[in-house]
Amino acid sequence: MAVVSRANSDYGRFVDEVKDMSLFPLWERVGGLKPGTQCVPAHWSYAEVRPQLIRACEMVTKKEASRRVLCLENPTLRGTTFICDSLFAGLQIILPGEVAPSHRHTPSALRFIVEGEGAYTAVAGEKLPMRPGDFVVTPAWAWHDHGNHGTAPVVWLDGLDTPFARFFGAAFYEPYPEEKQPLDRPEGESISVYGMSLIPDEFHSDGHSTPVLIYPYERTRTALDSLARAGKPHPAHGFKLRYANPATGKHPFPTMAVSMQRLPPGFSGQTYRSTGSAVFAVHRGEGVARVGEQEFGIGPHDVFVAPPWQPYCFAATSELELFSYSDRAGQEALGYFREQVG
Ligand SMILES: [Fe+2]
Description:
Layout: H1 9-20, E1 42-44, H2 46-59, H3 62-65, E2 69-71, E3 82-84, E4 87-94, E5 99-105, E6 109-115, E7 119-123, E8 126-130, E9 135-138, E10 144-148, E11 154-160, H4 162-167, E12 173-175, H5 189-194, E13 214-215, H6 217-230, E14 239-242, E15 257-263, E16 272-274, E17 278-284, E18 287-291, E19 294-298, E20 303-306, E21 312-316, E22 320-326, H7 328-334, E23 339-341
Antiparallel strand pairs: 1-20, 2-4, 3-4, 4-11, 5-10, 5-12, 6-9, 6-11, 7-8, 7-10, 9-13, 14-15, 15-22, 16-23, 17-20, 17-22, 18-19, 18-21
């Protein structure tokens, strides 16, 4: 393309005039198309965040906050509540006896239970008791409320695709007229009916979210044990399992892929990068995560984010289990997803 001289005053006037008409000359754009975003790798130590969650309990009642959540904001996205351009992450705390009132929204949500026994979530008419390591599904526009029947605080990681809904101008929200939604499905129905590698003959998937509303850690651990016995670890990911929608074999959400991986003690993985933005939560174990130019010492319940196309790798000092979610599902649906190992 010929270089157009800015010294040419006719050209300068042309550019100014078309900009005033909300027209922009494409050849003037700096940068062009390339992978990655302005987001930076970031890490939240649970040892540092937990005391702030406890402080929040002293200062804000559940009634005042509706959801008592500290959002993990990317340092480049202050004020947005987002951990990266395409995902939300927040740590939510609920005290014994508290109820987070029922509502629904178009963004899809997941919960990964961090600590505490005795909490439940109710999703689409089914009550789901939650234990550490469980992954809970809240499909788009499904009613959901939470409560804590236990004797200690319960903390979980909320993961949402809110930026997608915002991007499309389709972020709807509705409170339920009462605190709790009616429970019209038996407890455990979604996993006992849809989570057995058998699908009711008359079931037709909408192709969106999985009909299984909870993936208990107990089952995940058993599957990881089997995978670890069956073969060698992947050079970058160790033993990694994707949570699947049993009706389609695809991801549990239209936008988000969700995984759990296990790295054996002493594992030192190859570098990997993908166009997916990924949020990791340490379920158990300790190690080191190197993301881009940064190195994070990681321990139980820490959260960190790997922005798109930034290389990352893991080393495990003890057996390390990492829960993660990413925007891979949305990118695959759009044909954007790319990855590289090594
Ligand atoms: Fe919600």
